[in-house]
Amino acid sequence: xxxxxxxxxxxxxxxxxxxxxxxxxxxxxxxxxxxxxxxxxxxxxxxxxxxxxxxxxxxxxxxxxxxxxxxxxxxxxxxxxxxxxxxxxxxxxxxxxxxxxxxxxxxxxxxxxxxxxxxxxxxxxxxxxxxxxxxxxxxxxxxxxxxxxxxxxxxxxxxxxxxxxxxxxxxxxxxxxxxxxxxxxxxxxxxxxxxxxxxxxxxxxxxxxxxxxxxxxxxxxxxxxxxxxxxxxxxxxxxxxxxxxxxxxxxxxxxxxxxxxxxxxxxxxxxxxxxxxxxxxxxxxxxxxxxxxxxxxxxxxxxxxxxxxxxxxxxxxxxxxxxxxxxxxxxxxxxxxxxxxxxxxxxxxxxxxxxxxxxxxxxxxxxxxxxxxxxxxxxxxxxxxxxxxxxxxxxxxxxxxxxxxxxxxxxxxxxxxxxxxxxxxxxxxxxxxxxxxxxxxxxxxxxxxxxxxxxxxxxxxxxxxxxxxxxxxxxxxxxxxxxxxxxxxxxxxxxxxxxxxxxxxxxxxxxxxxxxxxxxxxxxxxxxxxxxxx
Length: 534
Ligand code: FE
Ligand code: CA
What we know:
15% of the residues lie in helices and 25% in strands. By secondary structure, the chain is of the alpha+beta class. The protein has two domains: 168 residues, Sandwich (Immunoglobulin-like), CATH 2.60.40; 358 residues, Purple Acid Phosphatase, chain A, domain 2, CATH 3.60.21.70. The strands form five sheets. The protein has a seven-stranded mixed β-sheet. A seven-stranded mixed β-sheet has the order 12-13-15-17-19-18-20. Strands 3, 4, 6, 7 and 8 form a five-stranded antiparallel β-sheet that branches. Calcium ion binds next to loops.
């Protein structure tokens, strides 16, 4: 398995203190690693920095590990290990209660939960301009192997996280959960509690990890109480979410592979246009949102460059599956029409809809995806596709068709190009979020044309907690096989012969202790894109 894009080393730009007391002590334990996330010049320059972990730690207001730990972007031989220092998680300025000083964080990864069999360790210097986030790339790991990790600063030790590297070669099985849309005001995270109890290779997060709206007083409320616009606001909002114990449990137990949708910036933003912002093109807000997303997710990516952060990437799981993780916001053209103030639905009078060629993925990502779908070598091609691809007619009150143009329905030419590429690829399966419903759809080579071939199934994961759409579209979307008006997540199991998708649904989204049960199970056989319920 590889991250099949030429990523610059995310640690190459970072500053690492040399020769702190902590680093010297760690090296004395006999661990060796010449990777770039280690002290660059070794212990012999111990006086160069003139700072120690202890001196930084002494300035902390308290336990800095309130936001938990996470792993992400697993490969057969490496794993991102994440935390973010925040002794006062809900400090109003978004600083987490940290000063501007850098802080040395000791990281440890072991083959056992008690850390008796240390595999590697090092010191990572958390910086204020990166929100005191930590993104360690732990390397030289074994495939399909369970590891435990933790962080230490001064007297404080983080919770222990567990992660498993991905299998290599010819794995017999891949298991993942698909998560999306987790507004914390509208529901608890029973879905994450249940997910954390499962044995899964990874969690594919398709976006709306946070919402940018004002925090709403209620059973629980995110901070701040206003719409978030600047970096401090976004950092504070992420901190609110990361405090949830069930989300923390899922992160501590399962590696995440995350992309984003619109609410990581603002509702229905597309390209550089942020509809709810006063100017409509608020690049400062977008840059702040991207920076905070990067700081708060366990991703193997460089930090953003202003309002630019390429998050599309793919993962090969041996010869079993390739996961194409897509970004369908940053590089997209505007939808064909967008009546004031922010109506993105086409009620039939949007003449430009079929005329222009608009891009959804952007030129570079589109070419990259085409190449990845064409290159073969795997049984399954899983598309981590934030917004619905197959087409949904939500229906206008007068009985006319109604298409939401912020999904692929607003980008018919780009969709047609993608569908053609998918039709030529091995066993494409579309995994989708955004719609606040569960759905099973047949993806036809020509959307809404029942006579055109079915080229893939599309499984739309239920939202974790965001308010349900609850509009029955079954009568208007003939290729819709099932619609679920539930919260939860999608559990996917992939073998060389079959893919199984289970809709895990929450009985009471207001209750973190709610039961979670399987509401529907669908299978698709390798070689046949027509899915069936079992
Ligand atoms: Fe959402
Ligand atoms: Ca969305």
